Amino acid sequence: MLGFVLGSFFGGTVGVAAMCLCTIAKSADNENSDSFHNQ
User: Fold this and answer.
1) Residue 4: what pLDDT?
2) Chain segment 8-37, per-residue pLDDT in tens
3) In angstroms, rounded to a whole number, what is the distance separating the alpha carbons of residues 34 and 12?
4) Cα three-residue angle 16-18-23, rounded to 5 degrees
5) Strand runs (DSSP E) across 1-39, as ranges?
6) What span, in angstroms and rounded, lies between the C-alpha atoms of 32 and 26?
Protein backbone atom coordinates (compact mmCIF):
# COMPACT_ATOMS: atom_id res chain seq x y z
CA MET A 1 0.00 0.00 0.00
CA LEU A 2 2.81 2.42 0.87
CA GLY A 3 4.49 1.76 -2.47
CA PHE A 4 1.24 2.49 -4.27
CA VAL A 5 0.82 5.80 -2.43
CA LEU A 6 4.42 6.84 -3.05
CA GLY A 7 4.21 5.78 -6.70
CA SER A 8 0.98 7.68 -7.24
CA PHE A 9 2.37 10.80 -5.57
CA PHE A 10 5.65 10.65 -7.53
CA GLY A 11 3.89 9.85 -10.80
CA GLY A 12 1.39 12.64 -10.29
CA THR A 13 4.16 15.13 -9.54
CA VAL A 14 6.11 14.10 -12.65
CA GLY A 15 2.92 14.28 -14.73
CA VAL A 16 2.12 17.79 -13.53
CA ALA A 17 5.72 18.92 -14.18
CA ALA A 18 5.60 17.46 -17.71
CA MET A 19 2.26 19.15 -18.36
CA CYS A 20 3.66 22.51 -17.20
CA LEU A 21 6.70 22.10 -19.47
CA CYS A 22 4.45 21.28 -22.43
CA THR A 23 2.27 24.32 -21.72
CA ILE A 24 5.30 26.61 -21.44
CA ALA A 25 6.75 25.23 -24.68
CA LYS A 26 3.42 25.70 -26.45
CA SER A 27 3.04 29.31 -25.28
CA ALA A 28 6.66 30.05 -26.27
CA ASP A 29 5.95 28.55 -29.68
CA ASN A 30 2.91 30.77 -30.12
CA GLU A 31 4.82 33.90 -29.05
CA ASN A 32 7.68 33.13 -31.43
CA SER A 33 5.40 32.49 -34.39
CA ASP A 34 3.40 35.65 -33.64
CA SER A 35 6.50 37.86 -33.52
CA PHE A 36 7.78 36.18 -36.68
CA HIS A 37 4.55 36.96 -38.56
CA ASN A 38 4.45 40.54 -37.27
CA GLN A 39 7.87 41.46 -38.64
Assistant:
1) 94
2) 999 999 999 999 999 998 888 777 666 656
3) 33
4) 95
5) none
6) 10
